[in-house]
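Table S5 (text form). Sequence records supplied for joint modeling of the four-component complex.
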Amino acid sequence: MQSAVSIKNLKIAYGDQTVIEEMSIDIAPKEFLVLLGPSGCGKSTLLNAIAGLQDITAGEIWISGKNVTWEEPKDRGIGMVFQSYALYPRMSVRKNLSFGLRVAGLPKAEIEARVSRTAALLHLDTLLDRRPAELSGGQRQRVAIGRALVREVDVFLFDEPLSNLDAKLRNELRVEIKKLHQSLGNTMIYVTHDQVEALTLADRIAILRDGVIQQLASPAEIYQRPANLFVAGFIGAPMMNFIEGHIETGDGAPVFESHGLRVDLSGYGFRTPPASGPATLGFRPDHLMLDGAASGMPTLPGRISVVEPMGSEAVLWFDWAGHSLSLRLMGDVTLRPGDGLSPGLDIAKASLFGTDGSRL
Amino acid sequence: MKRKTNLAATVALLPTWLVAVVVFIGTMGWSIHLSFTNSTIFPSSTYVGLAQYQKLFSSAKWLASLQNVVTFGILYVGGCLLLGFLLATALDRKIRFESVFRTIFLYPYAMSFVVTGLIWQWMLNPMLGIQASVRSLGWDSFVLDWVVNRDMAIYALVLAGVWQGAGLVMVIVLSGMRGIEAEQWKAARIDGIPVWRIYLSIILPQLGPALAAAGLLLAMGVIKTYDIVVAMTNGGPGNATEVPAKFIMDNLFGRQNLGLATAGATVLVLGVLMIVAPFRYAMHMRGKKRGAR
Amino acid sequence: MARLHPNGPRPTQITAGRIGLYLFLIVAVLFFTLPLYTMVVTSLKTMDEIRLGQIFSLPSKLDVSAWITAWSGACMGTVCVGIRSGFWNSLAITLPSVALSVFIGAVNGYALSLWRPRGASVLFGLLLAGGLIPYQIFLYPMVRAMATVGLYNSLAGIILVHVIFGLPLVTLLFRNYFVSVPEELCKAARVDGAGFWRIFFEIMLPIAVPMVVVVSMLQFTGIWNDFLLGLVFAGRDNLPMTVQLNNIVNTTMGERTYNVNMAATILTALVPLAIYFLSGRWFVRGIAAGAVKG
Amino acid sequence: MKTMIKLFLAGVAFAGVLTPAQAEDKPTIEILSSWTSGGEAAALDVFKTEFEKRGGVWKDSSIAGFGAADAAFQNRIVAGDPPGAKQGIIGLAAADFVGQGLFNAVDDIAKAGKWADVLPKSILDLSSFGGETYLAPTGAHGESWVFYSKDAFAKAGIADEPKSWKEFFADLDKLKAAGLVPVAWGGQPWQQSKVFNMILLSQVGIDGFLKIYVDKDKSEASIAGVRKTLDILRKLNGYVDEAAAGRNWNDATAMLITAKAGVQFMGDWAKGEFTVAGKVAGKDYGCMIVPESPGMVYIADSFYFPKTGTAATDKGQKLLAEIVMDPAVQVAFSQKKGSIPVRLDIDKTKLDACALKGAALMSAGAIVPDQAIVLTPQQVGALDDFVDEFWNNGSEDATAAAEKFFDVFE
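The corresponding structure-token record, covering 1357 residues in total, follows.
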């Protein structure tokens, strides 16, 4: 099937400073792709390049089967939503929505129809004659989304659209965006630095760092099988626990050793045959079992330092061999700081990383 | 890989390019060329090397004018900033009739330098102005003779300039103060910091950009200083208030010495470039960082 | 004395600081108004009274004849029509000059800050330098250039000259303003298909209204108060009010009528003064809206 | 941008339409003068009336102030659009223009009007370049005058005009003792240079004066003369009030009118100020040539006639030259302007007491030209600087300064 958006050998540099290294991504029609990464990783630059707002140094950009590398933004068949909303301050909501259509010279009736359709979809009907300054943050962001929708194009670009909103609104709008995607079925490319948005919205997530894609995969894959230490540490809250150690491949099954801990690795799905040497063991707080010893798992005995109740769940922080490790527990917690515990580790769900940081 | 939209921007700037190249660079080139000739009232093509520059820098008037413009510039800009800041602080203290005060402090900015100079020349003239009036009230030893006193005349210029320009600074600074978050005031009040200390240690450092903008606006006028001097002291007494722009004008027309005038102009332009170039470089570097974001 | 039991609203106090504050303000008001006061009272005195040398005293009786003379009777050479004709000339010069320079400056600022085409920073540097150089230096070659294109001594000529010399300041102010406008606004409009001019007229110019007010006022004052350029480039049919004021005030060997001079001076300054008195708050608002910042 | 270009083009077209069509037949003249104040303008009006009476078209482009008028004139020359006539002093100030071939000569008018017979030789010489007459002199001002307030003299008990510098300074002491400002000093460079010159003439005589200014003679005698002049100048400095710096001459005159000050050094145009204030020469105020002076420094105004290439203006220039030198016009002009007619053959009955003294000196040839006539504008500026520096720098040694004086001519 033809890709909705295809980036081929893209490179972006300012002088001798490279922002995007040689990069290629194919995005399928109706796919929701999230570009995720810390600030300065090049994700916004990439989005701007797709939009045609950013000159590229080398490579090609294809949208809906057309090479648009040198096209104007308006000719690319895209709509875009910006972090700061970028609403035109002196225009009413109606004018904001219709500006692009008026520029394109669409018939009046058509413009009106599209504007009211979009307004209804986003519950903006009553706000059409207000100025942006008279709107709340959430309303502004809906107008910004509406401005992309009225264009009725195949590809929507979102540049951190929710990061200027408070937590409650962010959750609400996130759901709305997801609904929109499900009902409209457009291709969406969404830039964010918020992993919750990425995990909840995306069909696939591309994690970027310093202009290089670290991993491009489904949210589950990324959460469960991070491709390297960076991805592992970046995704998940609280952060994945890491323990430095080394792998012994003796006569029997390979073993991970650290501070007297010995973990039998026979249950771990190695990508390549294991070899002896230093390695980092990573496991998420959800993958420690309070009653792990009973099921024969290797244990990490320690003492609780902090309890963070979060309503339906709680995070326990405990000390083990100089490491501060976390453990997620569902339901009510009766444990208190100072109590001892000895949780078991489910090696099948853990990750091992080599000295170069990549997954073993 | 230039896009046509950028082309539109380039085209839109063409008239300005034309002005910059033809007027600013072209005439400067022409002036520099003339400064190496012995032109008097009309341009001549007899080259005399650096003779005009030698003459220029052996002229007490020119040397005095350079010194004066530096003194005036520093005190005028500094004075405007200081008084403007004080006025803004006072108006920031929730006083009555703020807009009346503000208008009174700002109106001199509508006056030309010529009018400013004329009126202050009157006010500071010992026989006519403040001194005479104070003495007629019985304080016979009162002295305020700045315009006619060789050592003080430059300060008279500064006084008149500050009178004219302080209001602008006040407006800029006041709007800067109003832009500072109210929470800082609350924090400082809880910490028990005296008001003057808050202005000095907390507010003032945050007004850097506002003060810099105001300073730049005023500084753009300093090297051009001409009208106010002509109206107020005409360069005197002696050379006490002579300024480069007036020196150039005098030689350009009254004294019919194009060569010397253009030599002076060239020196002035070099001076300007020496001020602007590092500033521009810094801005350029900042811009680069910004662009890379 | 027994202290009151604190209860209810705190009583307002007149503190020493408060008194000092108002004292400072009153001294400042005196400093700022004294010159204008002097001009006004002098213009209302007779010459005989002025020769007594009491410039701060109120006129013994109001005499408005100086004002009438200044407006419609004062002589410049053999023509005795006062400065009223210059008033219209000044308007004819100032209004188009302000409109043009503000428009071009706004376009420049917009193009330099939001589009940054090749050479933008070089151009900006040139303008900045041009803005600092005394324009006396440009007079002589400019005269020649203007004569060559047939604009010397014409209204169009003097307007063009004002626009040229106004460009650096206006461009600088607009550039600094537009730099603070989010780039995303420009990007959003481009996604919407708007081009350079459309974005300027429909989005940027409306945003920049406070700035346009401030710059227009600065430019209006500057151009209205200009003497030298008007003298050199306007031609005898278009001499602005300031040149006529000079003809009345500045005389080398003639007698001086200070009351007429003061009246003529106030008349000349009246329009910019009125603008500041009436629209001062727009000016203040414009600056508060970020018209002038670092 | 299109709008701007359109506006611009419209402006150009507009300017083209406005260019006035020349009246082909009538002699036309556009005058650029700096005569803008009451008496000056009235005097200029004498020419205008006569010019129009004789069928000419007169346009007035006066600009106040020497500097401003000169700047405007030079710029119009540069632009190739000069006025038909420019008021300016005779002598070297016009030399560069004539040298560049920018002026029309009025030699035929001068010959027809026999100017050589009626003008003092020095004035005719200074109006001519390369043997041809280019400038039409309008009138002369005497610049060796000491005006004094009779009231102030009476208050100080001074009965007679001082005859020598010694008496003069004795009288100044009396004025001081009477609580008056002895000298109403106009502290502007051009005024100070004039005082310097009137004293110099009293010290070195007519020949010595011309030797210094015309021959640039730096002999012992010249240096000694300059030194004595500077000594007197320094002495005078002790008799001026503190507000002298930058003072306009007419403000100084006002001090005499109100009897606050005793004497003022000035040219005869100061009479206008007395007249406006209702004071009468010989009754309320007196005029005398500076003590010990054998003659009078004078300055003469004239009209320059730039080449405009317009037939009507050429005609107008010739007509104006005729009118300026008309005997009746000369008298009428001088009365309004407060100057002395340059023609020697005019009716002297209408001149006031002071003008008569001046006219007598002129007829006797006891006159020397002002520095602006015999020096280039650059040298005039240098002289102003020199005198101003000496006057303001109280510590400068007169002997050393006298040596330095001759640098002015470089």
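Note: Chain C touches chain B through 88 residues (CB under 8 Å).
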